[in-house]
Amino acid sequence: MKRYRYFILSGVAVVFGILLFIAYRYFNKPTVILFNENPVVEKYDYLSKSQVDTWVDFTLSKFEEIDYEIQFAKDEPMSWEDAVSSQNEKLSLKNSRSNQLPIDDDFTLIIKLTQKSQHARVLVPVKAEVSKSAYIEVYHFDKLIEENDSIRMGSDFDAEFKYLGLTPYFSEEPKHVDCSIDTELNMSNPGTYPVQIFITEDPNITFNFSVIVPKKEVEEPVVKDPETSTQPDKEKPGVSGNNGDVVVSDAHSLSVLVNKTRRLPDGFVPKLREVPNHYAVDHGYRAHPEAVQAFMALVDALENETGKRVLVTSSYRPYESQQRIFDQYVSEIGYEKTLQLASRPGFSEHQTGLSIDVTVPGGNMFDFGNTEESVWLANNAHRFGFIIRYPKGKESITGYQYEPWHIRYLGKGLATKVHDSGLTYEEYWNKYLK
């Protein structure tokens, strides 16, 4: 009996000891309480450990030691000091600051805690946003204009206006950031049109002004030789002219059809957004905001699935740029051959902001059809709202040679239908959308 009682008491003591150990571990578990569990920092600025300390509620938190690690996207976690060195090297900063972390993107803060020989790691996502001190400069013929100015237009918005988004950049020269434009400007109709330029990453940072489209002077009609004239007749939107060309009435629609017989209204300017430098061969390329967003998703998917990338090598072109390209081709190879390679001004899809030409990094656009990237693009572009606009073997229908590098944004739904139909966009539009 005594022996049985002994085992009972021993068992109780063991259980009690285990419970005490668990309670000890639980009540001495390292914990951290943050004032904000989703902190936001300024992009292109420095972050110090002392600033991170201000995020921590030291009164309610429980730990004896605290340290921080940093993990940027696709990088391994690294100590604060190693992260500082890595960022300084990556960004090639001239005025680096000792032990201060340069921020150029979102990252994960890893908080390492120690309490009574126990350790814990807490992951905190940190978002980097463009500084509220970012600003926009707008120039008209290289003259800086003031916000809310009203500017009398000439004939080409893109030739006359230039706009720049700028943000403080690590105590160095300001950095360019992407801008977008929102306007219903119609050069065919005289009047005053509001224009808003905004920082793409922060649409609350804006620059507003107006443009005045003057009435056109009435000129005596000039009779042109039909055999030598390269300019289309002036038609009313949606109405066929004597030469069969049509001025489209849905120029701002994602499904607009522009080709050799269907042209854009005079002075048409689409909504535009800059293509981030990481997705283009150089800075300054622009396209419709939806097309830019979809293209970025396309490139990211291509890289995730194949390890390869494509870049924008041509996108939106204003009327004057298309005129120069067309005239250059005519001077080199003649008018008839040029029509197979380039569009007349007003008849180019590039003027819609919905078409993008791509190439591989360091490659030649005209060799794109021989790459693995072109095969992936042909099979997957519709997933992101694009089609190969001028497919092989359809030259007699589209009027253009095979261009595997030329993609057109339609939106996912319509692009998938066109892709699955096996038709060119001309064929699909005439059958289902006309």
Q: Kindly estimate the percentage of residues that lie in beta strands according to DSSP.
A: 25-35%
Residue-averaged pLDDT: 86
Shape verdict = elongated
Query: How many strands?
Result: 23
CATH architecture of the largest domain: 2-Layer Sandwich
**Biggest sheet character:** 6 strands, mixed
Low-confidence stretches: 219-237
GO molecular function: peptidase activity
InterPro entries: DD-CPase-like, VanY-like_core_dom, VanY/YodJ_core_dom, Zn_M74/Hedgehog-like
Protein name: M15 family metallopeptidase
Keywords: Membrane, Transmembrane, Transmembrane helix
Describe the structure.
- With 434 residues, this protein is of the alpha+beta class.
- The protein folds into three domains: 90 residues, no CATH class; 89 residues, Immunoglobulin-like (Sandwich); 195 residues, Muramoyl-pentapeptide Carboxypeptidase, domain 2.
- It is built from eleven helices and 23 strands.
- The strands form six sheets. A six-stranded mixed beta sheet has the order 10-15-14-13-18-19. The protein has a five-stranded mixed beta sheet with strand order 1-7-6-3-4. The protein has a four-stranded antiparallel beta sheet with strand order 9-8-11-12.
- The longest helix has 26 residues.
- It starts with a helix and ends with a helix.
- One of its GO terms (molecular function) is peptidase activity.
